[in-house]
Amino acid sequence: MAVATSARVRAALRRAATRATLAPSVHNTQPWIFRLSGGVLEIYADPSRQLPVLDPTRRQLTISCGCALFNARVALAASNLSTRVDRTPDRFDSNLLARIVVVDEPSASVDPISDYDALLELRQTNRRRFADEDVPGEVLEAVQGAARAEKARLFPVHAYDHRFAVARLSQRADELQMLNPAYRAEIRAWTTDDSRRRDGVPALAVPHVDGNARNEVPIRDFDSKGAGWLPSDTRSSRKQCLVILGTDADDSRSWMHAGEALEHMLLELTRLGFVASPLTQVTEIPDTRLALRRELALDMHPHVLLRVGRAPLTPATRRRRLAEVLVE
Predict the structure, then answer these.
(1) Closest Cα partner for 30 from 309, 327, 321?
(2) Pick from 45, 111, 150, 233: CA 20 to 30 A from residue 77's CA?
(3) Confidence of residue 129 (pLDDT cuts 50, 70, 90)
C-alpha cells in the first residue's frame, strides 16, 4: 500500500497530533513527542518526562502514549482517512512507540471511533465525590466492549471479598508511596498552582486535603501545597463501581494497547454521561500489583484501577502547545 502524502493528508496529520495532545497522562506529564514526515505520524516517548520513582519501568508513560495514539486514530478516522498503525515498530529505538501511516486508498467504511472526535475536549479525569447511584449494566458492557476492541480486558470488581481486597491493597500502596520522600518530591514537582503552567496537575483540579476525605479506596493526594480547589469530602468507596483494566501480556506493545483501551473507555463513558478517576497506586507498587492479581485470581496483568460514576464537572487541565511537541 502506497503512503498518501497530499497537502490534505499532512493537514489531517497535524490535526491528529493536536488532538493527541488532549489525551490523559500520568500526572499530566504529557510524555510524548510527535514526528510528522510525509504521510506518516510517529509517536515517541519523551524520557525527560518519565516519573522515575513512580514509574521506573515506563509502563505508565507508555500507557499515556497509548492514550495519545487513540486520540490520533480518532482524529484521522474523523477525516475519513485509511491508516495502518504499527506499535513499537523499531526494536533498536525503544522511544518510538507507534507509527501511523496514511495509506493511499479510499476508506472502505466509516470507522465508528470517528464519533469520539467531538468528545476529545469534553473527557476529563474527575476526582470529586461521585453520586450515590449504581452504574447501569449496559454502561459496563459498553466500556468492556471498548477495552476488547483495543486488545485489552476489563474486570469489574463485583464480589465483596474482591472489593475489600482492592480497598486494602490500595490503602497499602498509597501508604508505601507516601512514606517515600522521593515520591513526595516527585509529586510536588508535578503539581502546580501556577495558572500559566501547561503541564502537571493543577490545584484547581484536585481535592483539598484536610483529613475529611473519608476514602476507603484512596484518591492520590496531589494537594502538596494545601491549595486544592475541589471539596475535600470525596468518599471514594469500595462500594462504588470499580473496574480493573489489564492485558494478557506485560510488555511495551501491551502497554500501548492498554493506553488505547483506557482512552477508548473514557471517551465511551463521556458519551454516556459518566466520568472516571484512575486509582493506580495499587498497580504501581510491584508487591500490591502482584497481590491484586493473586487475590482476585486475575488471568491478566492489571494496569489501571478506575472508579466510575457521575459527578459535577471539574476545570480542564492545560496542554502544551503543538509547537513544543511536534517535529516536522
Answers:
(1) 321
(2) 45
(3) very high
Report d(CA 322, CA 254) in Å as an integer.
Answer: 27
Could you tell me if 120 and 74 are in contact, meaning their C-beta atoms sit under 8 angstroms apart? Answer: yes
Global pTM value: 0.96
pLDDT tens-place string over residues 211-269:
777 889 999 988 877 777 788 888 898 999 999 999 999 999 999 999 999 999 999 99
Banded pLDDT at 1 (limits 50, 70, 90): low
Long-range pairs for 168-171 at CB < 8 Å and ≥24 separation? 169/282, 169/288, 169/291, 169/292, 169/295, 170/217, 170/218, 170/279, 170/281, 170/282, 170/288, 170/305, 171/216, 171/217, 171/218
